[in-house]
Amino acid sequence: MKTLIVTVYALFVLSALSVAQSPAMNAMPNTIFVGADGKFETAPDTALIQFNISAQAGTSKDAYDLAARQAEATRQVLRANGIDPKAAEIGFFSVNPQYDWKNSAHKIIGYQVTTSVSLKLKDFSKIGPITQQLADANVGGSQTLNYTLDSTEEAKSKAVADAYRRARASAQSLAAASGRTLGELSYASVDTSENIRVLAPMARRVMNAAMAAPTPAPTEEFSPQNVTVTAHVNAMFVLK
Question: So where are the chain's domains?
């Protein structure tokens, strides 16, 4: 019987910066090697609010004290919304001198204290009040809101299953076209990726304007975008 080798490669763009490719493999006789994309979309279960606490003053102590007051204001906002301040996480903390670059001596003219804060929320109804109250307390210059999944394992499994179904369907079509029968799976590899939707930073002046007017918060009544989990499956099947 004539030996048949069929190899198919499919490239799947997981993001603007990464591409999932078929792994380097030696083609084997009487096999079909295919690649396919799959995805699963679901509503997010977690909102991630990120902002910076930043203060600048003539001395490092004054800048530190100002940042400490902003941090305390943040804790008060969280407590007012029934959230333990320990639920918020600090990403970094820095104290940087500010120089007069117009002067050849580059003298220090002040200090800036900055720390990043992130907060995960399960209750989306708290997003509007928290972002507004942080803006009113003059905490941070901007706020960024992301919607994501806290647990992606089930979504990943469904995306992989979708990719495998597509891969097997492609292999069956190739086998039928060549007059052969598709056999068992002999090899498979999987890549998955979660597409996190990021909303643009919300400037403090915009948030303050929203507070002054008797209108709902910018995020109210809108539905958060679905989170898309993608998968790429490479599979090798035996030909009969």
Answer: 6-42+152-195+229-239, 46-148
Lowest mean pLDDT among 42-46, 104-108, 193-197: 193-197
Question: Is the pTM above the cut of 0.70?
Answer: no
Enumerate the H helices of the chain as residue ranges: 60-80, 127-136, 153-177, 204-212
Fold of 6-42+152-195+229-239: Translation Initiation Factor IF3 (3.30.110)
| Backbone dihedral angles phi then psi of residue 158, each to the nearest 5 degrees | -70, -35
Diameter over CA atoms, the chain: 86
Summarised one tens digit per residue, pLDDT across range 13-30 is 333 333 344 455 566 788
3-state helix, strand, coil in the chain (%, to 5): 30, 40, 30
